[in-house]
Batch of 2 targets.
Target 1
Amino acid sequence: MNLYLLRTYMDLQLLLFDIPNLCDSVIRLRKIRKTKNPKSKYKDQDYPAIVSRCCEKEFVYCVSKPFNSFYARTKSAKNPNAYRNMQLISAMNALGGIGKHPVAGGCNNKIGSCAEQHAAELLLRKNPSCKLDKIFFSNPIRPRTNEPRTFCDNCVKLFKL
Amino acid sequence: MSRYTKDYQMNYDIDWFFTDGIHYFHVASNGGAIPDFVNVDRNSNIELQNRIANSKIVTNDINVIDNPNGFNYSSFVDFAKKGFISIDKKNDGFDSQNYFVVAEPSNKQIKPDGVDDLIPKLSEKNRFKIHIEDIRNELLW
């Protein structure tokens, strides 16, 4: 299987088995929060702009075990505890630093705010020995509509996508 | 009064609303900027979201944009049934003001239930630049 087909195959697996469930769970959680306490000022009551799921490349073949993967949504990089993995932190610092725009320009997103980067952090907490370029990402998705999105420049550089 | 921070606007797909006095619009921010006349008070927008979530359906006669890719437009359809012209932001940058109608009531002048006292109103003073394409891809605004 050539690389393109392999990549498409892996995307398809994650898209079919994981992402619809992920979007459903985001929407369900939002509805529960609203129903339980309609006057809640809970700040997470809006849809996340984008969600992404990642796993180690080896796990992609375990279609029957989709739970080996991690997902996250876009969120602020201001929280000092958001990132703990030194490998990821040093790669982000090389780009320009967490919470800042990349030194080389080319991307409007602040480093550390993307869903992919938060998902990678979760994976690396479980398996610190995993290398950044060995992480596989499903295409990022907008949960409101299930529209696929593209990887941003920061993520392409960080994870060699 | 708290406002939506720029960080929050970039990270969330926020529902916001406005009226020009005749039509009532629901907008999905799609990670983009919210205009200042709406982003005066975040709590008032949350109150409006909650009120609309619990309001009644005013029409089932709606038009929805063609959907060849099978995206999930149920959120927009729900707002159209509640009397809003439901529009989405194009994915072309945080500050862009390009929108398109996803779902709308056939009678565009229908009035949603119980939002008049809270919904931000467009006036000459706070008029903002916005480009909205209607369902036939023609410029609506």
Note: The longest helix of chain B spans residues 42-53.
Target 2
Amino acid sequence: MNAENLAKAQEILRRFPQKSSALIPLLHVVEEEFGYIPPEEVANVADLMGVTEAYVESVLSFYTLFHRQPTGKYLIQVCRGLSCQLLGADDLSKFLYEELGVQRNGTTADGMFTVEEVECVALCKNAPAVQINLAFYPDMTKEKLQAFLEKAREEVRSGAGDEAAL
Amino acid sequence: MPETRLLFRDIDVPGIDRIDVYEQHGGYETLRKAVLDMTPDAVLAEVMASNLRGRGGAGFPTGRKWSFLPKDGRTRYLVCNADESEPGTCKDQEIIYKDPHLLIEGVATSAYAIGAEDAFIYLRGEFKVGFEILERAIAEAHAKGYLGDNVLGSGRRIEITLYLGAGAYICGEETALLESLEGKRGNPRLKPPFPATAGLYGMPTVVNNVETLCAVVPILAMGGQEYAKLGTEKSAGTKLFSVSGTVRRPGNFEVELSKVTLRELVFDLAGGPLEGREIKGIIPGGSSVPILTPEKFDTPLDYESLAAAGTMLGSGGVIVLDDRSCIVKSTLRLMEFYRHESCGKCTPCREGTMWLGQVLERIEAGLGRPGDLALLADLSENIEGRTFCPLGDAAIGVLKSGLQLYHDEYQAHIDQGCCPLGEVVR
Ligand SMILES: Cc1cc2nc3c(=O)[nH]c(=O)nc-3n(C[C@H](O)[C@H](O)[C@H](O)COP(=O)(O)O)c2cc1C
Ligand code: SF4
Ligand code: FES
């Protein structure tokens, strides 16, 4: 964890009546910083919590939002819940797989996009729904997804340009 | 057929998520009245009188649940269930994202009533943005003295701590939720003991749904008896219904219980079927409850009428299927969900959902075998009533009803080796 997150971790360890409750919030901090839970961070969290690595593994493996492999800068989660499927969710994920050349749960080679199909995200009234980095994208269409991909690529291109200039 | 908006009264007010706007619309008056003018028991009495039932799915009377807390001086906790993971349900989400102070006021008022200083809101991991919205709202409420060590000078301490889950439907089940909140895998606990006697950290705990706790605000504002006049004795008040699937105007609608039929909700409020389609079935209470076919669409929306019709009000997640929606594909989709979400603790659920999924998969792929429908029925029977927690029964609600109601459609898949609806067009 970086220094800022270590400080945050210390606050989280004090947040709950019992320390055990800090485990999942700490894993969220790791997931947010790295885009997944790297093995060395499992050890780090185990240390902070005063539990074994095996225990941390057993808990984190229960929860689907913790990734074991690096994810892209943009984690695109297409809801495949029934209400979304009835209104074309399959077409959206198929479109993304083709457009990005990835398979389910795959990440593009440039590390930009990961595409997942997830269970109902509680936006059924705006089906088909998508979450991108856990923000809601209601009433999705292929066109809207296409526009998002272009915008994201453009941002990164100009951002990368800046970095290159430095 | 109009809505009756108590919880959704201000949901569309611009800026209602900011505390000053919320206050301008009467916000936090209920909390003020409770902590300054009423004893906790007086608040409980109003909730009792309101006949409010839990809106999370099981429909347990809320006042009664609160009254189960033992009076033994141990620390008590209030836990708000904001896991909202039942497919088809998106009502709590709209409150959290648009009107977060309503939830905070409901939680704080309820915490006061049950004598809890610490309340927790357990949000599903996908509500990360909702977490941030609530975080900011809680800070605003703190700054105004609605939360903290001495709420509105009453001498009472009330704090709300947010907790973000990480992707697991079963964590909506209250004991699995408590396990998760304690930092563990979300395996349900054996009941009894019920959370009221041994809940969070082994302490007396009340777990209530978002909508339930929000309802406490209008209940106190109008008085429990007035609230109880809405709906029927067993189904008092208003309820949020999420209508989704193949309808023209999907959305969340708040209606007075028993005064609106399923047909009025789906055809009038939600706009009815898509162009040129016919609605063939409605799952009225989230993906875990039996389907209703058109001859039952005139059932009033309340707990007892829906039970009499052979289904459940559940979470109020109304999923609409039309004549282009394949029952096998839809049921398979739900079975994949339950298979994925089974916590794996008990055999009938863990293995049963897997086998059911496999049989449904082959029927859907056109490879169904002659005995498969009997096999599905048999497998369902071996799950029903035999699982450690209610997820097992939830997994077979749509399947079991669908096998009867759409027997011919199932059979045609097997006989024709393909979907009788042909290529499903949208
Ligand atoms: C598998 C399963 C999932 C559940 N999911 C939720 C949920 O997402 N939200 C919820 O409020 N209740 C859910 N419940 C119901 C809770 O166990 C519990 O009854 C409810 O939170 C109590 O609150 P209430 O009395 O206010 O309804 C679920 C139950 C089961 C068995
Ligand atoms: S019924 Fe399913 S979810 Fe519930 S305890 Fe058994 S395996 Fe777990
Ligand atoms: S089914 Fe996709 S949001 Fe509920």
Note: Chain A touches chain B at residues 15-18, 20-25, 27-28, 49, 58-59, 62-66, 80-83, 85-88, 91, 118-127, 131, 134-136 (CB under 8 Å).
